[in-house]
Design brief:
The complex is a heterodimer. Chain A is built from eight helices and no strands. Chain A is globular and about 50 Å long. The N and C termini of chain A lie far apart (47 Å). Chain A is mainly alpha-helical. Chain B is built from nine helices and six strands, in the order H-H-H-H-H-H-H-E-H-E-E-E-E-H-E. Chain B is extended. By secondary structure, chain B is of the alpha+beta class. The relative contact order of chain B is 0.08. Chain B is 37% helix and 14% strand. In chain B, helix 2 crosses helix 3. The chains are: A mainly alpha, B alpha+beta. At the A-B interface, helix 1, helix 2, helix 3, helix 4 and helix 5 of A face helix 1, helix 3, helix 4 and helix 6 of B.
C-alpha cells in the first residue's frame, strides 16, 4: 500500500471528518494536513493487523480529539453555532415520512448540517462514520476504541438526538 | 419511545439485527404506526447525512498542502519485521542472563533446619501443591480484533510537548545579608507569603475548573443534548509524574505510601493516586499520578499502550466500581513511564 493510494482513497473522508468535528473549513484543512503527516510517518510500520480504513480513521479521530483538547473549550464553543441566534435552528421541521423527497431537499440538508454541528462530539463522530462514511459497527468500534455494544447504543441515541436537534427541540 | 426500541430501530435500519429479531420487529412495525414513523424519520435523516457526505468535497487547496508528502517516500519503519524478531530474541536472551546473575548473587534465604526429616522409602503422594496453575486468560480474542496493538500504537498521535509559561516570580525581600552601615528593612515575608499561596491555590482551582467537560444542557429525556458519557475534560499537559523502580515485592508497601500521600492532599483541587505498571521484565513501576479530575475511590485495571516512554493509549477495566465521575484512562494519558518498553502494559490505578 503506497501513500499515494491511501491519499487518493482517504483524502476526502478524512477532510470531511475533520470538517464535521471542527466545524470550520480552515481548521479542517490544517487538521487534515497534520493527519496525513501522521499517516505518512506510520505507513511504513502499518502491518495490516487492522483494516486500513480503521487504522486511518483511528489516526484521524485520535488527532482531532487531541487537537480539540489542546485548543480547549473556548474554541469548541466558538465553533458551535448558537441555537439562540437563530442561525441554524428553525422550529418544527417535519422529518416524518417520504424519506426520498425530504432527503433530496436542500433545506433539510441545511438543517441537518446545522443540527449535526450542535450534537456532542461523541454523537457526531459515530453518526458521521456510520451514515456519512458507511463504516460498519465493527469498524467504528475499532476506530474509536469502543465496545461494539457501546457503538450500537450510542448510535441509536445519536440518531434520536439528531432528530430532536433538527426539529429544534 | 424508549431507548431499547430506538436501538432496535437503529440496528434494524443498518441490517444489524439477527433474523429472528428482525422478523419480530417487522411484525411490530406492521401494527404500530408510531414505531413505523420513527423508523421512517430515522431513515430520512440517515439519507440526509449521506447526501451531506456526498456533497462535501475537499477544497483544491488541500491538494497543494499535501503535495510535498505525495512527492516523498513514506517513512520507513524503525525496525523491519525480521529485525523485530531478532530484537525480541536478543531481549529475551539478555533477560534470562540477567535473571540468572541476579539469582546467583541473591540466593534464596534458607530456613533454619530442625531435626533431619526421617527418610521414608515410600514416596510422598504428589498432591500437586507445588504446581502452578495457569492464569485465566482474560485477554481479548485476537481473532476478533479489528485493530492490533501495533497498529493501535501507530495510530496514536504523539502529542507535541506543551511548555507552560513560567509562573511570575515576586521578590519578597533582599537576598543578601544586611550590611552594617545600612540596616536592611525587614522583608515582609509573612505578609507576602499569604497572597502568593492564595494566587497559587486560585490558579490551581481555575486550572481544574478549566479541565472540566462542559455540562450538557439536558438529559436524554429532556432535550437533544444528553450528558457526555464519562468523558473527561481536556488535559492540557501530561499529568505530573515521578517514576521510580521497585523490586516487585515492595510494590504493595509503596502503594500504601502513595495512598497515604494522597490522603494528605485530599483537600487540594488536585488529586493523587498510585499507578502500578507491569513492565516486560516482570517488575512493577510505581508512578505517582496527579490529576485535576475527580475519580471515585477504587482500583482501576488499565491496559496502557506506551510509546517513547509515555502513555499514548489506554483501556479500562473498572473493578468493583459501577460509576465513576471521570475515566481513569484520561488521568494517565501522556504520563511519563521511563524505562518501559514500547507496547501494551497491564497497570493498576489505586485511588484512595
Amino acid at each position: 500500500m503506497t501513500f499515494e493510494e491511501v491519499y487518493t482513497r482517504f483524502r476526502a473522508p478524512v477532510w470531511r471528518l475533520a470538517r464535521r468535528l471542527s466545524g470550520d473549513e480552515d481548521e479542517a484543512l490544517d487538521a487534515t494536513q497534520e493527519i496525513f503527516i501522521r499517516i505518512w510517518r506510520g505507513l511504513g510500520g502499518f502491518r495490516g493487523e487492522a483494516k486500513l480504513s480503521t487504522w486511518v480513521f483511528q489516526i484521524a479521530w485520535n488527532y482531532l480529539r487531541w487537537r480539540r483538547r489542546q485548543r480547549g473549550r473556548q474554541t469548541a464553543l466558538l465553533a458551535t453555532p448558537n441555537p439562540e441566534s437563530g442561525e441554524a435552528v428553525e422550529r418544527a421541521v417535519d422529518v416524518a415520512p417520504d424519506p426520498e423527497r425530504r432527503a433530496s431537499s436542500a433545506e433539510l440538508l441545511t438543517r441537518v448540517d446545522g443540527a449535526l454541528q450542535r450534537l456532542p462530539e461523541h454523537y457526531r463522530v459515530v453518526i458521521w462514520l456510520r451514515d456519512g462514511e458507511d463504516l460498519s459497527y465493527e469498524e467504528i468500534a475499532a476506530a474509536l476504541d469502543l465496545p461494539l455494544g457501546t457503538v450500537r447504543s450510542r448510535l441509536a441515541r445519536a440518531r434520536q438526538a439528531l432528530r430532536l436537534a433538527v426539529e429544534g427541540r | 419511545m424508549n431507548e431499547t426500541a430506538l436501538e432496535l430501530l437503529s440496528r434494524y435500519l443498518d441490517g444489524d439485527l439477527p433474523p429472528a429479531e428482525a422478523r419480530r420487529l417487522d411484525q411490530r412495525l406492521a401494527s404500530e404506526p408510531q414505531l413505523r414513523d420513527e423508523l421512517e424519520a430515522m431513515s430520512s435523516l440517515r439519507q440526509a447525512v449521506r447526501d451531506l457526505a456526498a456533497r462535501d468535497q475537499p477544497p483544491a487547496k488541500l491538494e497543494s498542502l499535501l503535495e510535498p508528502l505525495r512527492r516523498s517516500a513514506p517513512a520507513q519503519p524503525v525496525l523491519r519485521p525480521a529485525f523485530r524478531w531478532l530484537a525480541a530474541a536478543a531481549t529475551a536472551v539478555i533477560g534470562v542472563g540477567l535473571a540468572i546473575q541476579v539469582a546467583r548473587r541473591n540466593p534464596a534465604p534458607t530456613l533454619p533446619t530442625r531435626a533431619p526429616a526421617p527418610r521414608s522409602s515410600s514416596a510422598a503422594p504428589d498432591r500437586g501443591l507445588s504446581k502452578l496453575q495457569p492464569l485465566p486468560d482474560r485477554g481479548v480474542d485476537k481473532g476478533e480484533e479489528l485493530i492490533g496493538a501495533a497498529d493501535r500504537l501507530l495510530a496514536s498521535p504523539l502529542p507535541e510537548p506543551q511548555l507552560q509559561p513560567a509562573a511570575p516570580l515576586e521578590v519578597i525581600g533582599p537576598l543578601a545579608a544586611p550590611s552594617p552601615e545600612r540596616p536592611a528593612e525587614p522583608a515582609p515575608v509573612e505578609e507576602k507569603a499569604a497572597p502568593i499561596r492564595d494566587e497559587v491555590d486560585s490558579a490551581a482551582v481555575k486550572e481544574a475548573e478549566s479541565h472540566a467537560e462542559p455540562l450538557a444542557s439536558a438529559g436524554p429525556e429532556g432535550g437533544w443534548a444528553p450528558a457526555p458519557q464519562a468523558e473527561v475534560g481536556p488535559q492540557q499537559q501530561p499529568p505530573g509524574v515521578s517514576a521510580y523502580h521497585d523490586g516487585g515485592r515492595e510494590a504493595a508497601g509503596l502503594a500504601v505510601e502513595q495512598r497515604e500521600r494522597a490522603h494528605e492532599t485530599a483537600t487540594s483541587p488536585m488529586f493523587r493516586a498510585g499507578l502500578r505498571v507491569l513492565g516486560d521484565d516482570g517488575f512493577y513501576r510505581m508512578v505517582d499520578v496527579t490529576f485535576g479530575g475527580r475519580l471515585a475511590p477504587g482500583r482501576y485495571e488499565l491496559l496502557l499502550t506506551v510509546a517513547d516512554g509515555r502513555v499514548m493509549a489506554c483501556r479500562t477495566d473498572t473493578v468493583g466500581k459501577a460509576e465513576v465521575d471521570a475515566e481513569p484512562c484520561a488521568q494517565v494519558m501522556g504520563a511519563a513511564l521511563s524505562g518501559l518498553a514500547d507496547g501494551e502494559h497491564a497497570a493498576e490505578l489505586v485511588v484512595p
